[in-house]
């Protein structure tokens, strides 16, 4: 139990650190580093406690049930391999924190950097500790997103933004592939539990989907670990602050890919397909990465390509998959993390103290920073694989695997040669780094005078280099047992213990190492000056940059092709869009319903009522008339629309939906006013449009008419058939039976809205709020057509009488109607739960009351007396509804569970008081806010135009006066 | 003639008469000729609808249609007023 809790705490610590650092002030570098560092150190302490059982071969688990129905649990799991990896991550994270404390300038915002860095650490650890493969993918994607944020930390720079975006696109796409691979794996194995998956190697390898799983899985790993041809994002990522680069390139991010490769090699490996794909890619990356690194002039660029090359080495080892290879892979993961972190930090120090990273400008720095120089020399010697350093040991083990392990394929036979050649390049670029930067004549013309960095900025480098030396000289005493335990955790407990020693006698791997060393030195001695003078890239290959290709591809995919596609099939005109929408709806409906829709055998019908029939005639002719008038007589069309609306409401009432009738009537009234407000800003009608008489226009109109007729008749038929079907038991019956019992209301519509389906309503009012705010935002930037700017015609005609004069009597009546409408709104609101009404209709009524005041007087008059703050109404409404829902949580019920009872009020008597009423209050407030916001937003246009007119033309008005 | 029969006759007559009024108002609404005519016709149609709500409620014997009539009575004129103001001033809200 204690161990389980410790494991959970371990996984949570970085997130706690992230939370803590976000609360710090923007300059608190020291505090942020201390808080994060101490929390991570606590993580290391937990790892120390857990070491005992894990070293004994135990696998610790800790599970939190999350979505059990999907087989998705938050399972954390730690074995010796994960233990080693997490220790590595935490250790380097602490060193990076110390380094960053001195690296970042005073102006870099603290909380953002440390919070991102801690979140990233947390995501990486979550990925490592995941005991569920879906959870693993989630953390995997989190590392992609957070690395995007970290690389783009200095988002003022173009390079940082581009690099961050490229990293996100490449690793994010890889993550998607990995997700699909994991889903397939889960289907094949029948469980998403990592232990089950790791035990099902044979099942997976013999499954017909194995090639698909393998391809997708490898795409995920290769993109993350920057394998060719996806390597290009990693050099782009050096735009990040150096501490981030050091962290990303050493223990995290790129190591996630090789972690997964090694972890899953018992499941997906041991096939020829795996060997060729993984070892082939790894060897290609190893060789090309080393080659390109030799030709980079940028310090961090050299190191980035060196990282790519070393990742290729680890990948190749994972592809070989023998016990020795896995051991070597784990060893090299650790060694590379140690020397690469120190090298990046050293490069950062050089950049920090001299102001440049260009190796052609740097020279002879040993004179100015002897300590840093010595540290960097040791670290790069380790990178080159010089004996007595840790890099040498794992490289030697790699050479041994390349030379000794055989499966008889051509790739296997060429492994030693490629390995040695890559070794030559590795030695050459390490030598170039050291020789150009630290030796030679003193530098000239540097941005800063170089000097040693603050002592604490160097401490992390010192610690890492010390590790290089200790591990390099005493491998069997230091890392040997841990590495063997880790390899056993991957390949099974039966694995024989393999001793890691420096001296194996004169054998093939040692000869390969010596050849590489000698070849590298010779290569640099012969071509060093020419490389420095040449372009940034190997001969011929520097014309061919994957980064550029990627940019072009992205440009093509996100800009050129969509644009040409848009030009080909898109249109900005409303008519073709509407035509397409109707056509698509028509097609879909026809295809779905063809042959399925039959009229009911015994059609329901109501007896003919002449009055009703006549009113339908009225409604129909109004609707047709509105369509007819819409082109040239917008105002008449609007009036006719009002008529059609009134008849619709009548129909609702007739067909026993009085509730709907009330709501629809209120909406009709507000809509008329809204449309009129908009009508003022539409451009004036042109008397004659010549093309309108021409043949194409006529044909087009005839076609549209036909389309409209077909769609209209189809919809009417559909409605008719559905409504004449005999009643069948449906969910509606349940609502009718249970509305009072469960919801405490007799108005079933309202009970459904605020109780049974309250969550839907909550979503809908949220949408309404969003729409209202959007309308408001759009209208703030609204600039009407110049021709509708002038005062409207009729206003001029009424002899410049003021509004108050024109509407004296009506204005008084309209003012008096305000309290009446308030009472009506309250009436509709309070009886809503039992009788027709409800929050929505009450809200619309109240907004009509406000609208009326705006109609009776001008905007200034109203706003001097009555302040409506629509945005607050909206916010408070949403808050009330949401809190009512949350209130159910507090009492232990699901979200939005309503409670109904009656309370006794003095004077009034028994009043129904469902919590749904409270929810309805929220709806009410929101509807008022949204409607008034839209009305006012449009109304204020007139005010603004009036102001503009006053400002632009003061003379004529004076003359008129 | 029983009272019930009488009531039925009266209500049916009232309904048909109101529907006829609605039809006539619609004719005016469609042919115009002036915009003012149309607005007035719409107001007439609204009043007719309100009365139809009341009469229908009586015929069906339900009190639930009363709210709809109430809403038209109290707020229905807002649509007419805004249309009228648009004609009069060219702007609904100034």
From TrEMBL, chain A:
<feature type="transmembrane region" description="Helical">
    <location>
        <begin position="609"/>
        <end position="628"/>
    </location>
</feature>
<feature type="domain" description="Na+/H+ antiporter MnhB subunit-related protein">
    <location>
        <begin position="810"/>
        <end position="932"/>
    </location>
</feature>
<feature type="transmembrane region" description="Helical">
    <location>
        <begin position="302"/>
        <end position="320"/>
    </location>
</feature>
<feature type="transmembrane region" description="Helical">
    <location>
        <begin position="500"/>
        <end position="527"/>
    </location>
</feature>
<comment type="function">
    <text>NDH-1 shuttles electrons from NADH, via FMN and iron-sulfur (Fe-S) centers, to quinones in the respiratory chain. The immediate electron acceptor for the enzyme in this species is believed to be ubiquinone. Couples the redox reaction to proton translocation (for every two electrons transferred, four hydrogen ions are translocated across the cytoplasmic membrane), and thus conserves the redox energy in a proton gradient.</text>
</comment>
<feature type="transmembrane region" description="Helical">
    <location>
        <begin position="916"/>
        <end position="939"/>
    </location>
</feature>
<dbReference type="InterPro" id="IPR025383">
    <property type="entry name" value="MrpA_C/MbhD"/>
</dbReference>
<protein>
    <submittedName>
        <fullName>Monovalent cation/H+ antiporter subunit A</fullName>
    </submittedName>
</protein>
<feature type="transmembrane region" description="Helical">
    <location>
        <begin position="661"/>
        <end position="683"/>
    </location>
</feature>
<feature type="transmembrane region" description="Helical">
    <location>
        <begin position="38"/>
        <end position="60"/>
    </location>
</feature>
<dbReference type="InterPro" id="IPR050616">
    <property type="entry name" value="CPA3_Na-H_Antiporter_A"/>
</dbReference>
<feature type="transmembrane region" description="Helical">
    <location>
        <begin position="81"/>
        <end position="104"/>
    </location>
</feature>
<dbReference type="Pfam" id="PF04039">
    <property type="entry name" value="MnhB"/>
</dbReference>
<dbReference type="GO" id="GO:0006811">
    <property type="term" value="P:monoatomic ion transport"/>
</dbReference>
<feature type="transmembrane region" description="Helical">
    <location>
        <begin position="876"/>
        <end position="896"/>
    </location>
</feature>
<dbReference type="GO" id="GO:0015297">
    <property type="term" value="F:antiporter activity"/>
</dbReference>
<feature type="transmembrane region" description="Helical">
    <location>
        <begin position="166"/>
        <end position="189"/>
    </location>
</feature>
<keyword id="KW-0812">Transmembrane</keyword>
<feature type="domain" description="MrpA C-terminal/MbhD">
    <location>
        <begin position="622"/>
        <end position="684"/>
    </location>
</feature>
<dbReference type="Pfam" id="PF00662">
    <property type="entry name" value="Proton_antipo_N"/>
</dbReference>
<keyword id="KW-0050">Antiport</keyword>
<feature type="transmembrane region" description="Helical">
    <location>
        <begin position="807"/>
        <end position="830"/>
    </location>
</feature>
Automatic annotation (TrEMBL), chain B:
<feature type="transmembrane region" description="Helical">
    <location>
        <begin position="64"/>
        <end position="88"/>
    </location>
</feature>
<keyword id="KW-1133">Transmembrane helix</keyword>
<comment type="similarity">
    <text>Belongs to the CPA3 antiporters (TC 2.A.63) subunit F family.</text>
</comment>
<dbReference type="InterPro" id="IPR007208">
    <property type="entry name" value="MrpF/PhaF-like"/>
</dbReference>
<keyword id="KW-1003">Cell membrane</keyword>
<feature type="transmembrane region" description="Helical">
    <location>
        <begin position="39"/>
        <end position="58"/>
    </location>
</feature>
<dbReference type="GO" id="GO:0015385">
    <property type="term" value="F:sodium:proton antiporter activity"/>
</dbReference>
<dbReference type="GO" id="GO:0005886">
    <property type="term" value="C:plasma membrane"/>
</dbReference>
<keyword id="KW-0812">Transmembrane</keyword>
<feature type="transmembrane region" description="Helical">
    <location>
        <begin position="6"/>
        <end position="27"/>
    </location>
</feature>
<dbReference type="Pfam" id="PF04066">
    <property type="entry name" value="MrpF_PhaF"/>
</dbReference>
<protein>
    <submittedName>
        <fullName>K+/H+ antiporter subunit F</fullName>
    </submittedName>
</protein>
<keyword id="KW-0472">Membrane</keyword>
<keyword id="KW-0813">Transport</keyword>
